[in-house]
Amino acid sequence: MSDATGFEPKIVAYVCNWCTYLGADLAGTNRLEYPPNVRIVRLPCTGRIDFNLLIKTFEMGADAVIVSGCHPGDCHYTAGNYHARRRWTMFRELLDTLGFEMDRIHFAWISAAEGKKFQQFITETTEKTRALGPYTAYREICEASR
Amino acid sequence: MARIGVFICWCGENIARTVDIEKATAEVAKIPGVRCAINYKYMCSDPGQAMVREKIQREKLQGVVVASCSPHMHLKTFRAAAKTAGLNPYLVEMANVREHCSWVHHDKEKATEKAIGLIRMTVGKVLRNRALDPIKVPLTKRALVIGGGVAGIQAALDIADAGCEVVLVEREPSIGGKMAGLSETFPTLDCSQCILTPRMVETGQHPNIKLYSYSEIESVEGFVGNFKVTIRKKARYIDIDKCTGCGECWTKCPSKKTPSEFDYGLANRTAIYMPFPQAVPARPVIDKDACIKFKTGKCGLCLKRCQAGAINFEDEDKLITEEVGAIVTAAGYQLYDIGKDQPNAKLSGYGEYGYGEYADVITSLQFERLSSASGPTSGEIKRPSDGETPKKVVFVSCVGSRDNAKGISYCSKICCMYTAKHTMLYKHKVHDGEAHVFYMDIRAGGKNYEEFVRRAIEQDGAIYHRGRVSKITRENGKLIVRGADTLVGEPVTIEADMVVLAAAMRPAVGVLELAQKLKLGYDEFGFLSESHPKLRPVETNTAGIYICGACQAPKDIPRPWRRRRRRRAKCW
To answer: Which residues 6+ apart lie within 8 Å of B356 measured at CB?
Structure first.
């Protein structure tokens, strides 16, 4: 699967406990294969995610970051996913202005019933990231400022 | 240095097949802070849990990582084990190396590498975990049951009999649900009413049950033990406390042309009506859209007739708040819309069957009414178009079910059985009639079920054709059913007098909205999701909310009946 340079993208997925985590469980139960490049971090809700966490993830070596939670209207805590969406809309521009490569941050809604969607999303994200290559630009800046 | 124990499970072969367990064990033992790393074939089993407990005590572990299945499956199990060994349960975490690793990858080397990574992450988490103590909150010992069909009635009675108060909310004017309209039930052919109506009466009279009929759930707030539920009591225009159910109003009502919901349009009802004579509560309701008084202002015959003074045209919807500790959802099912018009883009219909176009092409639930003693024909089989006795009836199973092209891949589970029952009911009433069945497979799993289907074929002479129906047309007053018998390998054309379509079961109207109000998960078809199909079949992922009946998946009548004990035990 890896290209000539042997690059294997590192992807971190921050997912909510109630929808996407269970969607990933369902992908497992149905034996839906996808590339092994993603590490899932289970959080109670996407509304919990601080964007500094995403920046930190890049700093620590991720080539792409995923945030995925419940569909609108389905949040276990009523409005957490709306908070996440609002925060995402705001921070996307901010991160863009700061010079982050926006095609390395992925936002999705995957429900507990969407194992297939989880598989597709992970596969696509892995392939896209592989094409982009390692995200060294930001890591170099971090190194330089140390 | 921290003292973390890592326990890697083989899950039989489920994990061990794809993850090199020995290598993973050796690698994670090197992670700073890890005191010991061991593996075992079934970590969740008694010896496996004993290993965890023993290591906690002997190695004085300060944290535990179990690398096995999803935490949704066994986190509680391992936390309980840790607790008995004296470790705070919140210092136990799971690395999901089954659902998120061994089951979705094939390359053993990469899967092993990922598993080690997942365990390393989880060790990192446990190192930062703090011991927690659960808080105690007061609990309201009352339950809400949503839906007054057979599942909801039984749930309400079980909880009420256990000594707890129950609030039962039913959106129709009467409880009883779909079962109240059935004729006789498989596999015993005892009448549905005889089984259900005594329970309905019991529900209506039970001192622990507060019944809100003709009411819906407006909103739900709160959490397990402390839910606050707002119920919309829809304007009935009848004071059910004053009303005696004498019937003087509906027998005099001049608006008589509304298709009866209870008879699925096979008969008409008045504007002020009781859905069926055995209704609970035995009180009428005014259909505002059909009522002449509401439409023109002139009428009010029922008001004049009512001796009890129970009629109130000024009635309005009322919002009532109830506090409960647990919620049981028994919202039920509806039939798939057979024709071209479908409720959403995922589904498509069978325009070629002529349902809605030909009066004598009916659904299975309509056939139930036709063969029911309480139905519009008093149980005589008469076809809707002209009231003649049909001499040849074709039953088509799997209409929608198991048809990916129509958007429903699942089996509706009950159709094979009720179709066999329909052929029997028909043959018992029309002795010289012919009953033909088109089927894909006969699925008759259950006690006395297979025998029942054989009886329909062997004793009552139902003619089964293994194949699908491609088209139904009408020629010279006959319904021409074109299909195939794949066992004979020939096309079959039957000139029928009536056709009964066994439409798929779908979650009831409004289940999706209800799921969103209750924060419940649902599958791609809209059925509500249980926490785990085997370990937690009646629980949902929202603590304190339980599901039962056909809003969970297609089910026959005995099933919710059987699951009730479990549900009752779970509520308190």
So the answer is: B338, B339
Highest mean pLDDT among B144-148, B162-166, B339-343: B144-148
**pLDDT digits over B413-439, tens only?**
999 999 999 999 999 999 999 999 999
B522: nearest CA partner in chain A: A113
User: CA geometry: angle at B334 spanning B328 and B338, to 5°?
Assistant: 160
Number of inter-chain CB pairs under 8 A, A vs B: 72
Nearest CA in chain A to B108: A36
Coil, strand or helix: which one is B534? coil
User: Distance from CA of residue B566 to its chain's centroid?
Assistant: 16
Query: Does the CB of B517 have a partner CB in chain A at under 8 Å?
Result: no
Q: Do B541 and A28 touch (CB under 8 A)?
A: no
Residue B80 and residue B109 in contact, taking contact as beta carbons nearer than 8 Å: no
Q: Are B516 and B510 in contact (CB under 8 A)?
A: no
Record the pTM.
Answer: 0.87
Task: Answer yes or no: do B388 and B493 share one domain.
Answer: yes
**A72 part of contact set with chain B, CB < 8 Å:** no
Reference B24, options B43, B42, B8, B44; nearest CA is: B8
- Euclidean distance between CA atoms B142 and B557, whole angstroms: 26
**pLDDT tens digit sequence for A45-92:** 999 888 899 999 999 999 999 999 999 888 888 889 999 999 888 888
pLDDT at B565 over 80: no
All structural domains of chain A, each given as residue ranges with its CATH number in brackets, are 11-145 (3.40.50)
Q: Choose one of B458, B489, B505: the last residue of a domain.
A: B505
Dihedral sign, Cα of residue B285, residue B287, residue B290, residue B296: positive
Q: What is the pLDDT of residues B365-398, one digit of tens each?
A: 999 999 999 999 999 999 999 999 999 999 999 9
